Amino acid sequence: MHSATLDLEQPDVEAPPPAVRSGEGVKVIRACTINRSAAELFAFWRNLENLPRFMINLVSVTQTTPTRSHWVARGSRNKTIEWDAVIINEHPNEMIAWKTAEESEFRHAGSIRFQPAPGGRGTEVVVSLEYDPLHSDVKILTRLFGKKPKDSVSQDLGRFKALMETGEIPSTAGQPVGSGKQKEEQ
Amino acid sequence: MKALCWLGKHRLAVETVPDPQIINPGDAIVKITTSAICGSDLHLYAGYIPGLRAGDILGHEFMGIVQEVGPAVKRLKPGDRVVVPFTISCGRCYYCEHDLWSLCDNSNPNATELEKVNGYSGAGLFGYSHLYGGYAGGQAQFARVPYADYGPIKIENDLDDEQVLFLSDIFPTGYMAAENCDIQPGQVVAVWGCGPVGQFAIRSAQLLGAEKVIAIDNLPERLEMAEQGGAQVIWSGDDVPDQLTQATGGRGPDACIDAVGMEAHGSVYDDVKQTLKLETDRPYVLRQAIQVCRKGGTVSIPGVYAGFLDKLPFGAAVAKGLTFKMGQTHVQRYLRPLLELIATGAIDPSFVITHRVPLSDAPRAYEVFAKKEDRCIKVALKPWENGAA
């Protein structure tokens, strides 16, 4: 249905080649409504170094130039997966689009859009991700997006929402739990 | 600390587990002074709610003294005496801001799982399975309470624990069930199930102006308590729909409250199907309520249903233009007004307690409550009494 990887509304000097070619990628779209203004959400997200706070697979994101960033994610067996991403389109308070840099071991592109929700309900946030298993290391893709990419993206979005609305992410990690075993009768 | 842990279907044990710690900045740790066993805990005990794991700490009706607060907590401090709602609600999402606390968007860390079952996830709940967040419950000596500024209500008067404890669940639950009936002067409300929620629904319906409340149950001690609460009673062994129709001048009750839920008795058909897992719930009462409710009336459902219901007479509901109201209780909405009713003496919720036991006796108390032995209607637990500490 959607052929262009990313909407380049104002192609600047030269449009970069698509990271995922039409018809070849897997596309995941997830939406959620966050009870905050688009400006607040955009500002938090655009500071890419914030992303590991709610994307649990990420170790760090480092902005290297205004549009280029270095990403480190958890790989298998204490290894890390690293790549560079490039912001290829950006409209303040509305959208950010990115793709993996040319030399990456996997091809991925994505965008996040922020649009006011009807009825004063905050902002509709729509994440759109594409990745190309044919031209990528599939193990890395699976590691990054999980076996159920829709769930992984939903969970990341849910944590983003919780963090923006409440300043914390719900968790029960480390709470007490019993052994679950019947004691021997004395 | 000591805590009541679920081991498996019909198996519980009081175990020594680590004390809870602050996990998030909005948390508080509460030292529990009184807790209780809820009728809905029996659905967990009997294994009807999926998503429990061996070792999970149960309990969602509790109160106590704030022991410690996280760095973001502003409204509570150590030493405050609080009752804790069973619904864990963030206070800042669209639903919380619109007083629909049990539908909170943010408090369930396992929301994706529940979304698969229900479309969207509601609030996390204390001690009510991992589908509802997997939060450790309050049948314990301490509990960690998330979003402490938005849940617990401070008790600043000298009311006893037993008078205010049930603000945590069953009083608001019964009250919301009655409020959902939109009771008008002169109206008759029928309440199926005279367990604790039914008892509060009966009394709340009267506080909200019902002309007459008719209560239905199969246990004499529950019917007695309903009668003491001002209800006319019907034993459920009788032909309930017929009795209700005749008792309401042939019209049927204006509103019907199903305070029984998924484990209703009375239908062999449903017992068999539920046992064979062909049906998740036994909607026997709901069928009766739909059948007998007057034309244009309301069916209010505080009883817990968890899955798919079989053979509901939906044609009758459509033909009679019924209104259905249901849902987990928006406990935080009712805390202040109901505390006010208790403080002014309009109601003393401690009437419902029939058993008081130390936490160490909780496994046995579940059994007594589940089997309806010893005229048991409501069990209060004392986490620090003899043998428990």
Question: How far from one another are the termini of chain A?
Answer: 68 Å
C-alpha-based Rg of chain A, rounded: 19 Å
Any low-confidence stretches of chain B, pLDDT <50, length ≥5? Answer: none
What percent of residues of chain B adopt helix (DSSP H or I)?
A: 25-40%
Structural class of chain B: alpha/beta
Beta percentage of chain B is 15-25%
Class of secondary structure makeup of chain A: alpha+beta
- CATH topology descriptor of chain A: Alpha-D-Glucose-1,6-Bisphosphate, Chain A, domain 4
**Tally of contiguous helical segments of chain B:** 13
The biggest sheet of chain B, with number of strands, parallel, antiparallel or mixed sense and barrel status, is: 7 strands, mixed
Q: How many structural units, i.e. domains of chain B?
A: 2
Mean pLDDT of chain A: 86
Count every beta strand of chain B, where a strand is a DSSP E run of 2 or more residues.
17
Largest interface here, residues on each chain?
Answer: A-B, 29 and 45 residues
In sequence order, what are the helices and strands of chain B, one letter per element?
Answer: EEEHEEEHHEEEHHEHEHEHEHHEHEHEHE
Protein traits:
heterodimer; A: 186 residues; alpha+beta; Alpha-D-Glucose-1,6-Bisphosphate, Chain A, domain 4; 7-stranded antiparallel β-sheet; 3 helices; 7 strands; 19% helix; disordered N terminus; B: 389 residues; alpha/beta; Quinone Oxidoreductase, Chain A, domain 1; Rossmann fold; 2 domains; 7-stranded mixed β-sheet; 6-stranded parallel β-sheet; 17 strands
